[in-house]
Amino acid sequence: MKNGKNEHINYIKSPIADIYKAITTQEGLSAVWTVELIVKPELGFVNEFDFGDNYATKMKTLELSENKKILWECVSSDPEWIVIGISFDLTEKDAARSIAVPFGITFQYLKVSLISVS
Fold first, then answer.
1. β-pairing, 36-38 with 46-50?
2. Which residue(s) pair with 63 in the sheet?
3. Of 67, 74, 87, 98, which is least packed with CB atoms within 10 Å of its CB?
4. Distances from the Cα of 36 to the Cα of 26, 30, 48, 52, 54, angstroms
């Protein structure tokens, strides 16, 4: 796998605390991603996501900085996902809130920016 990154930027009309909660809680993620999941906002917890194929993708929580950053590392999934990191970087600027999600700790990452606007 080549070193690299992908970046996605999204604008969201929601307070930054609500965006953080949507990414760190089972209730929040089940509303926006998949309903088959086990998630806890705890350092070291391994979150599990199943997309209906009875095969859970597992992401370990490496960092939680309230309303600022969430960092996961993929520890179990398809081979191309192993050692991929997902970093949700939340920002608020000029009444706009954003979340940047870079994937990849070692080899590759995807950055997704979610910007919350009033």
1. antiparallel
2. 71
3. 67
4. 9, 7, 8, 7, 9
CATH, residue 105: 3.30.530.20
Please give the model's pTM, rounded to 2 decimal places. 0.77
Q: Answer yes or no: are the C-beta atoms of 11 and 92 closer than 8 Å.
A: no
Q: Coil, strand, or helix at residue 110? A: strand
CA gap 88, 103 in Å, rounded: 9
For the stretch 55-78, pLDDT in tens is 889 999 999 999 988 888 889 988
Interatomic CA distance for residues 77 and 95, integer angstroms: 37
HSE-CB for 57 with a 13 A CA cutoff: 21
Give how far the C-alpha of residue 93 lies from the chain's centroid of Cα atoms, to the nearest Å: 20
Q: Is 14 helix (H, G, I), strand (E, B) or coil?
A: coil
User: How many domains does the structure of the chain reveal?
Assistant: 1
Higher-scoring residue by pLDDT: 70, 87: 70
Range of the domain at 69: 4-116
Report residue 49 CA to chain centroid gap.
Answer: 12
